[in-house]
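Lecture notes, structural biology module. Today: joint structure prediction for complexes of two components.
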Amino acid sequence: MPGLSHRLQGWAERRLPALTRYRRPESLPIELHRRRIYIVPTGFGLGFSVLLLVMLVGALNYNNNAALLLTCLLGAASAASMLVAFRSIDGLRLEQVRAGHAVAGESIELTFTLQSGRPRSAIRLDLGDAGAAFAMDGRAAALVKLALPTEFRGWLSLPRLRLWSSWPLGMFRAWSWLHPTQSVLVWPRPELSGPTPRAAADDARHMRLHRGEELATLRDYQAGDPQRHVAWKASARHDSLLVKDFEQPQSQPQWQLDWRQLHGLSDEARIARLARWLNEAQQQRRSFSLWLPGNEIGSGSGALHYARCMDALACLP
Amino acid sequence: MTPVAVRRPAAATVGQRSFDLLSLSMAFVLAVNAAHLPWWLSLALAFALGWRWWQRRQRTGRVPRWIKLPLLALLTLAVIAQYGNLFGRAPGTALAIGLLILKLLETETSRDVRVAVGFTCFTLMTALLFDQGLLSTVVVALGLLPALATLRALEPAQAPTSMPRSLLAPLALLAAALPLALLAFLLVPRLSTPLWGAPSQDQARSGLSDHMSPGGFIELLTDDHPAMRVSFDGAPPPPDQRYFRAYVMARYDGVSWTYRDVANLPPAALVVAHAVQYHVRLLPTQQHVLPTLDVPIAAPAGASMRRDRVVMAATPVDDALTYTLSSATQYELEPQLGEHRRRWLQLPAGFNPRTLALGRSWRQRYGNDDAAIVRAALALFHDGGFRYTLAPAPLGRDAMDDFLFDTREGFCEHYSSAFTVLMRAAGIPARVVTGYQGGYWNKLGDYLLVRNSDAHAWSEVWLAGRGWVRVDPTAAVRPERVSLGAAAAAGDQLGWYHRDWLQDFRNRWDVVNRWWDQAVTGFDALRQRSLLTPFGIRDTDTTTLGVLLAIGTTLFIAIGLAWALLRRQSRDPLRQALRELERKLARRRLARHVGEGPQHYLSRAARALPSQREELAALTRRYLDLRYAHDEAPPESVHVFRRAVRDFRVKNVVK
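The predicted structure, tokenised, for the full assembly:
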């Protein structure tokens, strides 16, 4: 059956663009309004209306006006709940979507920012099989986190989201499709194992000292040390001057990761290997540089640098 | 729609709040239905409910099947044992409520809760099958609150609220739904004939019956439900003349008096001296008899008059019935007795020898003066040490002998019965009449409220030249019974709820019940057809009602939609001012594009309107300053900006 309904849906989107207009991607922010909110009774709503019908016929047959009044009240309240359901998602704005980081095959965490001018309850956002429910207090934006499964590296455009609510009685479901034009970047999946990079930078030239940021040790003064590095307080308790030493020999050699060195591999294999090396470099806190066709990233370290390199890898054709 | 997820969010167990609310709704259902369930069943169900509630607080999970199934069997057996079958109003209700409580035992998921709530609404309605008074309707309608609150509590992700608040939350929804509900109530076409069998009244309230034995009324005399409401054209008769005849009983078998319904005899002759016209709203009695004030002149439509001017309806009064009658209050009934005389002198052989002897002795003493014999009997009751009480000593086989010469205490049945036997023994044609006497005159509503406790029995004797004359021997013993009513006569013998002030309040409050009865309960197919009479439509048929209902519903839907679509404008005055400016410029085809910032937009406008470039540039500057230079723009400056926008006029440009 899913196949059939998929085909039906495809047909509807082709043939009835007006009806399905809002299923096409649109730019953020998306505000829900009456022309794109649909309401259908839920299964419970249908069952309840059958019950109301039974109560109505019973009350009419037994000429029992009090029971009829009760039935009418219940029926009118159910009907009014339809409007409440509509109102609970009407005017809601999807402001932005932020994506986390994930490699292909894992789920990527999306954070949706929704804004509303008044308090709302029991709103649900579905993304494929994942769903989340949230309430809004009318002032602060609601941040909804959902996981989106990924398959391949590269840009992944967001699928259609469904925003719905069956507030307040669960008899009617008001829903609307959201299809933001946004895409999220999925990083390549690193290979599981393989050789370490040829350490072109293993020679002593690269064992240079670099100035760390933290105080490493105190050592005796040598001629030529800058005065502002002298540890005056510590020196006062010693015979000789002590100097704060900020410099440390770099513990790990720098890696120069280069696309061109990986001969004899397919593009994807090269990307997977580079991704693994990037991961290892990041784990070992090495600094590294990356050369890719059309993109050269200089030496650096840290999460931001790592993310930049991974992004570049992900974006390769 | 895309195939939605195989995910089943409903399968999760429901939270404590939903379950508490559901238990509360069920407790409510049980409470409103308790009045017509056997007490032991109510108690057992309340226990089951409480136990399940407590049990689930300890640990969530369904009650195992080996507990549920025996309980189900037990319930069915209990209902059959009590009522004899499973169908019909009372057993059906008992079974439905029992099943509802059992449903709670297996309620875990939100689907269960929803089913249970639907069933709760249904069983709330069954309470109204037994009592459709104003109070019970309001109470039952209040039962919708916990039921709807339960449904609300099922929805995920809500702002946390306290229990009372969540209980009151559906009130707004119900209030908003009330107008539509009333409209539907007015216009839903009523059935003039039921689709299937009308409910059999298997648990009839005790009413007047067609036989009477001393002591048989006692249930009726302590039942203060309204029996009927009477309004008069003109002044009501004085309290001691408010006798409503129902049955005229001729036959006495030593134990009880009985009324024999003979249909095809013409009514006895009646000479009317003074007549009163009045309207009776008779509440359901499940009997044919229609009580009438004194002697009716003619039967109302749908009823016929028997020989002794007893009015019988063609069908039992299962629903409240309104009828209009004329009655003679001063009259001569059956001036000539003819061959029927023997019927009114019948006495069972071998009963009450002392009473018969007393009657015969009076005949010997007073000769042909029937009136003197009547006076002698009344004097006996008045001076013979008789006492009026609702709890008389039991009587033996010769009941009248025991009463007259031994116990000397009783109420109207005893007195009328003994009096009639005495008269017959003395050779005066006499009979027992039962009906209602007295009632409460409600000044606010201008009507007479007659309760079941106003049931009364008296006698009629036939005197030559006067016909049948009403004699109330109870009045000789306890005049208050006739002049002040049953409650006054009973004094402290009735329950606490018959205290004066409370009784008085209940009598006054009855005007509301009457209004409810007229406006709601009595709004039947007939009244509905004449709904549009004020607008010149004599007969509103089903089609018209349907059209009206459709129109009205559409109207309400439009109002509801207007509310639903209402969007409150943002309260940011600066934004409003900019909007106003945008509107002014948009009239010159300078609408702001989507995604265009105010600076770009206004400079584009300035380019398009060169004559006002300076003005627009100043506005832009001021706006940007207000918007971005402060965390919160100073109100005075915003005010100045708004005024500038208001004064801004787009001049006509020739391009």
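Point to remember: Residues 24 and 110 of chain B are 16 Å apart (CA to CA).
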